[in-house]
Amino acid sequence: xxxxxxxxxxxxxxxxxxxxxxxxxxxxxxxxxxxxxxxxxxxxxxxxxxxxxxxxxxxxxxxxxxxxxxxxxxxxxxxxxxxxxxxxxxxxxxxxxxxxxxxxxxxxxxxxxxxxxxxxxxxxxxxxxxxxxxxxxxxxxxxxxxxxxxxxxxxxxxxxxxxxxxxxxxxxxxxxxxxxxxxxxxxxxxxxxxxxxxxxxxxxxxxxxxxxxxxxxxxxxxxxxxxxxxxxxxxxxxxxxxxxxxxxxxxxxxxxxxxxxxxxxxxxxxxxxxxxxxxxxxxxxxxxxxxxxxxxxxxxxxxxxxxxxxxxxxxxxxxxxxxxxxxxxxxxxxxxxxxxxxxxxxxxxxxxxxxxxxxxxxxxxxxxxxxxxxxxxxxxxxxxxxxxxxxxx
Length: 393
Description:
9-stranded mixed sheet, 15 strands, alpha/beta, globular, 14 helices
């Protein structure tokens, strides 16, 4: 338990600051908004009320409407040229990795790493996977540079996917806005939508095989972009889907995406908007996902049953594990994504078992794109926000 407290200290400090800053707002649903029983009762009541596919789709449409309204994305920004730039390509054991930046808005950069299978790739031959990261803030094990991120992205690339690991706004090289900016949520979500756009510019990308997976805050981003972008075909939110916990960071619950008047939409409901697309919930016994087996997963399964697609939603619950994207969680994701994206998991097997030893863990300096001088020259703060506002006019 000491380990999880340490790992989540940053998340909860942000949650506290965000809660204090928005104490006067009755529209924000933050942190443990419900008790565990209240969350479970809400889902149980919904299942009794939503008895047809049409009932659920009307509810899902209300969720999507509130997400866009709450994020102030009722009108999406114009999709301007991405202007991608590449550096530092490395050819490794069965995969390549390079540093990439592109503009999700004019002058506003998404910063990340593109992992690809090694060798010559044919047109529309590769699945596409977005890998947003969570709030893991150890300077030696941080954001998109984390060991578990590199392991996951490299393994999925060797299995046959184009994988993009990208910074949350205010993390890593994404320095144009602070992560505590009150309206960071639409920037971060728009970035994810534009990551899909970027990946689909690659000739080898298969537009019918797009997935998203992340843990913690990356799990939140996983179900948000899945709900808002129908191009996502498979979702794997890890250690985040809960009926009572609504996310503690500004990037998760700092804007009123969960509430419209007296109507409240839980994260379990938002995740359910994925139906009937394949979805895997990964949960553990030490955080807010500890009830997934008995609360959230049965709710998701009931939604999929309305479509006669129950086999397409799964839960891997690791009751003795903590809040991370550790090896057993990665194994669950590899198997699920291989099955639903037609990836070759045998490419990462050794002696019959999945083995990640082939992955070269790179230093942060080998994965960054910008120099310090380049970072210092980027537009920041209010100037970035003005671009965002102007882009929707």
